[in-house]
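FIELD: query
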Amino acid sequence: MISPKRLRMRKVLLTVITLFIVTVLSAQTNLKGKKISPDLFGVFFEDINYSADGGLYAELVQNRSFEYSPTDHAGWNPFSFWDYITPGFSYGKISVETSSPINSNNPHYIVLDVENVGHEDKYTGQSGVGLQNAGYEGMVVREGDKYNFSFFGRQLSGNPVSISASIQTPGGKILAEDTISISSQGWEKYSATFLPTESNDSARLVVIATNSGRIALDMISLFPEKTFKNRPNGLRQDIALMIADVKPKFMRFPGGCLVHGDGIGNIYRWKNTIGPVEERKEQKNLWGYHQTAGLGFYEYFLFCEDIGAKPLPVLPAAVSCQNSGGTWRIGGTGQRSLPIDEMDEYIQDVLDLIEWANGPATSKWGAIRAAAGHPEPFNLEYIGIGNEDRITPGFEERFRMIFNAVKTSHPEITVIGTVGPFHSGDDFDKGWKLADELKLQMVDEHYYCQPDWFLTNGHRYDSYKRNSTRVYLGEYASWGNKTRNAIAEAAFMTSLERNADVVSMASYAPLLAKAGFTQWKTDMIFFNNIKACATINYYVQKLFSTNQGDYYFDRVISAGTNDTTLASSCVMDSKTGDIILKMVNAGANAGIFKVNLAGFKTILHDAEKTMLEGDADAEDSLSDPLNVVPVSSSFYVNPKFEYTAPAMSLTVIRIKTKNRVN
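FIELD: result
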């Protein structure tokens, strides 16, 4: 918990920072700047489109713990993505059992009963009974990189059983191999390190018992040692780096509709996602596949810390998704509520999360965090309760209970409510009415619309009440990854900067999508097993996020027309003293902006201009990446100048000042 002493120290520090900023402002400008949210632009991660398992989470083995089920996906079962193999004309039996698991949260495991080991295979030199796994449509391994192999094993027969574990090509060529003896009557973790002799994009993991006997196997894992920040149980490096390069001020996770789940039994329970991975509880993914929970709350919080983003966990409001059972096509009637007699326990789970994140290592849940390797608090500030829920009486009752409990026990935490899935309508109105009644500090708005909507709604937040409930625009996108989509979003984002005294936070959605596995087509980053591709939308988000300010200045930039295709903003980053201009032209012809910097006292003439422009229908893809990318150049700034913005472009001009702080 945050102690009263620490709260007082925080207030003193904020006062000092405020005085410093006022001093910087008065030294640099005669203009009256409007203080805006310094946390405006962040990212939102949801496990949709195979974003976690098979994506950001670096595990190479699919169905490593044999927990796949037909309830996850039609046709799946505990053997899915595993092949039973008997090289050298060996024979035996294989079964899935549940009588003596490693942990009750992880009930299934494989039993290999090796009856006879044949002669050595002519090509691989192997013989025995075992399994092979090709991961998520092939494992990508690189020569010279290390891969950490591990599994849990248990001897079930009277004699030890030797295991040959290897990385192989599809044709059976062994790229790396090791031998391990299973000799314990109880579950033990075994491990080895592989160093492939050559690179391969379609490798597989092969595990073979090489002598007669009976063994149990579970949690068969292959992890690249090179993860983001080299963390064990970590994240795929290239994708994580692309997210880190956005320099988001916050990250919302783990969803999204994933959070409130497909029915009450499927709602996301954060406690099931922490602790040793073999003790975490896996479950069905709302989007039609599986969650191993290997990427759990500890990993989410750690990733936020690694990239300098504030964590924004979202917990269900004790109701399931109104789209449960796929009912969204016929109006959404699937919302179910947790029974009232279970609410005390559920509310305690919410309070326990705050203690887990912020409590000292001596507290009950803080000790669990410390045992995982993080004795210092994560400094949680925000919690989202609910996700674009229908604002039903059942939702309202449970949200009030959760909100009141959190504000009573943790007044320092900002609880973010929800106002439904659309930019207007019945749930939107009811959600805002509830926010007004409870005096919520912030609510989460969502909307996915066509580009024209974003261009014609640039004044949406101009009329919102100031000094009231603030807005977190948690999900938005313009239904496409073409230049016209990204530039329309850029135009709208200038209005978010203009209104960042009301809109405190904003995040595009969704963040990730795996090629061939997309349930949602308008995404920031597309990837396959080999590479990741930034969309034009990604570059817009990155340009705004890496050029955030904390003061907005009106009437510095003006357009020669009231055309909604032209939009602009001027902000100052008081930490550096830089003045940042953004000019957007979403039209088919060049547009002219007039810039008046006379009110700024200490600007330097040399500035940096970064421009993103392209054909309206240009679209980045994995097969043809980087069609439209930002281009930077030097730019000479006069106190007054005109700027001609090309059609379909975003221009960012970053102006240094004499009082610049490096």
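FIELD: remark
The two ends are 34 Å apart (CA to CA).
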